[in-house]
Amino acid sequence: MYLFNTQGIFRTSLQDIMDTASLPKGAIYRRFKSKEEIALAALDKGGEIIWKHFYVAIENKENVIDKIIAIFLVYQDTVNNPPIANSWWVSFT
């Protein structure tokens, strides 16, 4: 996800991914059919991480107002302190 966040999805090459992950092309293509599939998997993982923050924030809240406040606080925190390095949203450039 770091590469996509810092370079953008379209500017990140498969070679960049191979170099960063220290994996040969074959190992990557056994798991993913394309760079776009890798990007989707990274976005899914990022979504899981962010949603987990929301679930943890509301799990002990007893009423709707406290849950809504907790959601807004998590959102504010993820914008100011992203749980995924270098990004709130992935750059598509």
Automatic annotation (TrEMBL):
Keywords of the record: DNA-binding, Transcription, Transcription regulation
Signal peptide span: none
SUPFAM superfamilies: Homeodomain-like
DNA-binding region: 13-32
Classification via PROSITE patterns: HTH_TETR_2
Gene Ontology molecular functions: DNA binding
HTH tetR-type domain residues: 1-50
Recorded superkingdom: Bacteria
Keyword Coiled coil in annotation: no
Protein name: DNA-binding transcriptional repressor AcrR
Organism, as annotated: Bacillus pacificus
